[in-house]
Amino acid sequence: MTSTTSVSYTAPSSSSPKMAPQRRSPAIDNLTISTVTSNSSMEIDLRRVSSMPERGGVETVMSNSDEEDIIRKSQSEGAKPLLKLDQYGFISNMDKDGLVVPTADSQRPTQQGKGASITSVEQRRTTKWKIMLNSWSNIMKRRPKLVLKRLRKGIPHEQRGKVWLTLCHVKERQQQNPGLYEKYANSKESPSKAFQTVQETIEKDIHRTFPRHSLFYDDGNDSEAEMVDSPFGGSLLDAPDRHDDEEREREIVEGQASLKRVLKAYSLHDPDVGYCQGMNFIAGMFLTIVTEEEAFWMLVAIMSDQPCYMRGLFGEGMRETHKVLYVAEQLVHQFLPRLAKHFDKENIHVTMYATQWLLTQYTSSFRFDLVLRVWDCFLQEGWKITYRVMLAILQEFQSQLLQLSFEEILAFMRDLPERIEDGGKIVTASIHIPLRKKHILKLEREWLAKQDQH
């Protein structure tokens, strides 16, 4: 008996067939999981509402016992197991090799991962953010410290998209450049050889971007997928290259297609930077929160505008990357001198463990409970939160690291993201590290002076 399982996204029709529908929550509105055998056809519609911005609650169309019956029946008929999603849309029943494994767990995706109910504290925080958003300009002028305080506590997930778009002035950019994103995304101009090279790199990287997230999960490649080395270290789920563009466009999952268009559009918008590995994780993370076009304009904002200004990290020569890593190394010596001394003894340099953390603002390897909290702050206060979180992570594991040798430290660092049980706790602890902007500026001036001497 043969069987297949597919995951498909059901979205409203769009006036532009080549672009994804512009939704507030692009990750999933209706995730339809179909199990088809020669004798039967079963379809589960998971309306995963709570984990997406501007949505609340968990609505299902099946009881727990019904789902368990279908899981058992699917397994007995050789069908692929159903997907179980966490509160951020990641597939929780996937093993280290990228294969979805059967589970009879009846747990549903919930807003905070601990239950579908919202606490009174969360309700009060949500109400406060609604009030702030309704009078944003006035609040930012009169009480900027209050805004920063609340950003550091974390934005309620259902409002995160709105707040991020406001911080990045996305609405204003769209109004000033009507139709520009669609023009980039649907561009059919004869590309140069350099442009073709950029697009080929993008094509490879989209398959390596959050393969465990439901938005980017390629169900059709289960049998062909394999683990490969990440450009930043560690392993990522990869899929074989496709050489037939038309065939690939038909096969590509919606999240990957959106990511490909966003990265292509940015490479056209900023040809001097084009595309560099690492940008895919940032753009992919944006797509789990906001719509496709909004993700593009957010990428433009964080690359070009203060306080983020990440453009220099990815431009030719990656000059800003060297500056960031210099600052990070010196901060470890300043705030964690005992650990820094041990690292020096074992010849451990910051480039051996923190490059991917800093270049992608933790999106490439850490869980989203940490990543999203970092970005809540980063969009408003810039690099200070990035360095603070690095220090907080090292501080959290300092006692273990002090006992390890060179090889053991590198192995520990590769697995470190998985060792963090509560990312929010790390971010909260980082706020109490007495790092000031003047410390960062002083170290940046030192780095510039060293460059002038060469």
TrEMBL record:
In this chain, the stretch annotated as Disordered covers 1-31
User: InterPro entries, per this entry?
Assistant: Rab-GAP-TBC_dom, Rab-GAP_TBC_sf, Rab_GAP_TBC_domain
Species annotation: Fistulifera solaris
What superkingdom does the record give?
Answer: Eukaryota
Give start-end positions of Low complexity composition bias: 1-16
Q: Which PANTHER family match?
A: GTPASE ACTIVATING PROTEIN AND CENTROSOME-ASSOCIATED, ISOFORM B, RAB GTPASE-ACTIVATING PROTEIN 1-LIKE
User: What is the name of this protein?
Assistant: Rab-GAP TBC domain-containing protein
- Per UniProt, residues of the Rab-GAP TBC domain are 154-382
Stretch forming the signal peptide: none
Pfam families the UniProt entry points to: RabGAP-TBC (PF00566)
GO MF annotation list: GTPase activator activity; small GTPase binding
Print the organism lineage: Eukaryota, Sar, Stramenopiles, Ochrophyta, Bacillariophyta
